[in-house]
Structure prediction request, 103 residues.
Amino acid sequence: MKALPAYCLMAGGVLTVLGLEVAGFAMAAEMVPGEPVLVVAPPWSGGAEAVVASAGGAIVGPTQAPLSVLATGASEEAFRESGAWFLLSPSALSFFCVTKDTV
Prediction:
């Protein structure tokens, strides 16, 4: 049996730690009723836009990311039942996005 190269093991460890960090951040976020939420969904079957439409919500803003959209108009349960992986508070955007003001 051939051993995995060290860089594959290191990359796997880094991805695991980042995934756990995102999951912890997602679980700690408190949603405010009536406020927009960041809906993160799988890219297949229409992506996050289809999840929002299926939940009866509306997309907020002119642009969307490949796996997420800002949305409002539906409950957390409706978004989750429609296929959202997880929901984040819009304040999470500052954690994931770097702008000239945050550098």
User: Anything to note?
Assistant: The two ends are 45 Å apart (CA to CA). The chain is about 40% helix and 15% strand. The first strand starts at residue 37 and ends at 40. Residues 31-96 form one domain.
